[in-house]
Amino acid sequence: MTSRPAFRLSLASGLWLAAGLAVAVGIAWLAWPRPLKVETDVVDRGPVARTLVDEGQTRIHDVFVIAAPVGGDLRRISLHAGDSVDRGQVVATLGPADPSLLDARTVAAAQAAVSAARAGLASAEADADLARRDQARIASLADKGFASKAALDAADAALRAARARLAARQADLRGAQALAGSPAAGARRETPVRSPASGRILRILQESRGVVAAGTPLLEIGNPADMEVVADFLSQDATQVRPGAAASLEGWGGEAPIPAEVARVEPYARTRISALGVEEQRVSIILRLTDPASAPPLGHGFRVDARITLSEVADALRVPADALVRHGDSWAVYRVDGGRARLTPVRTGIGDDRHRVVLEGLSKGDRVVLYPASTLKDGARVRP
Asked: How far apart are CA 48 and CA 317, in angstroms?
């Protein structure tokens, strides 16, 4: 009877001991340092370029604004944006505008002026007829020797003066009729408007029929093959750009960049307000397409991203820019060596959005940690 309680005590102690050992093993397993999962990449060789990127806008180099040469009634333009035109082709037609409406007093005055002009014309016709008969009579007497040469010359001069007065009175009548709005004031004729150059119609500024003043813009014409890009860069960046520098156009709607080059850097900076409300000094840089014939069909005013290459190394030892961390006043990376992350100082050169040139500290094939966390320490175990 005395052995049974002792047996139960031994079994309970064993169970407690096993549970304690299991807890200790679990705590040890949880506390044991595990390799940190990290994303890695390899140091390799390839091209690295230092570039500037900013938004730009396409534009045709020479845009011709065709304006009305005279005021008049514009006939409806039958052409459309995108149509091709040749140099000298008629693109619009202007006819004479109808006279403006007159009030009753102005109409009465104009009609009185017409009546006075007609009376003056009648008087001039009578004077001219009288002068013609006098000249004929004196000429007949002069042929018979009964009139002097001086009298004949005076008669000829009087006839010419009478005819001149008659022409003046006829012109006065036409002027009075024009002011009065008479349909007989003059012949109506149209004025054609011709294209100054070959190209395509970019915009039609005045399509519908209507009365326009002289100098009113009607159309814009340009040659899409003569395309360029203007991009506004910060003035401190523009000082690093030189004409002839290689460039490319991105974000135009396709995947492949369009090759271009810097044509000129304008010498005048303009003040612009950024999206954050900060005043910036911007300089316009003009890019020209390297091969316009093979370029996609860009139009006037399209948005693109202009990337200008400042310097480039064709075959450089490069490290991903996302692997760099600050190490004092210089840079460092976490190099994976034997399953551990080793903090390795490096000296870098130029870089782009993805890579930096490695001058010292790494070799080709080294694996480095990308996006290293602030908790990552030198010598920590890692698992790529």
From this structure: 9
Considering only CA atoms, which of 316, 326, 333, 330 is closest in space to residue 367? 333
Between vectors from CA 261 to CA 255 and to CA 263, what angle results, nearest 5°? 140
Q: What are phi and psi of 183, to 5 degrees?
A: -65, -20
pLDDT, residue 15, reads 73
| pTM for the full predicted model | 0.61
Q: What is the rounded distance in angstroms from the CA atom of residue 93 to the CA atom of residue 86?
A: 16
First to last CA, the chain: 64
Residue 42 amino acid letter: V
Contact 357, 49 (CB under 8 A): no
Closest CA to 368 of 348, 349, 350, 342: 342
All residue ranges of the chain with pLDDT < 70 are 1-12, 28-34, 99-103, 181-188
Dmax (CA) for the chain in angstroms is 194
At 10 the pLDDT is 67
| Strand 36-37 relative to strand 382-383, pairing | parallel
Q: Which residues contact 47 (CB under 8 A, 6 or more apart)?
A: 312, 313, 314, 315, 316
Tell me phi and psi for residue 92, to 5 degrees.
-160, 160
Question: What pLDDT sits at residue 266?
Answer: 93
Q: Which is nearest to 106 in space by CA: 96, 98, 94, 114?
A: 114
Q: What's the token pair of residue 44?
A: 């390799």
DSSP code at position 35: P
Cβ within 8 Å of residue 104, ≥6 positions away: none
CB 339 within 8 A of CB 381: yes
Distance of alpha carbon 68 from alpha carbon 277, whole angstroms: 41
Helix axes 104-144, 149-179, angle to 10 degrees: 160
Which residue, chain included where needed, has tokens 């022409």? 167
Question: What is the per-residue pLDDT across 60-109, written as a single tens digit (0 to 9) for each?
Answer: 988 999 999 988 889 999 999 989 999 999 999 888 877 666 667 777 77
Q: What is the pLDDT of residues 126-184, one digit of tens each?
A: 888 888 888 888 888 888 777 788 887 888 888 888 888 888 888 888 888 877 765 54
**CA-based angle 89:95:100, to the nearest 5?**
155
∠ CA 332-333-335, nearest 5°, is 140
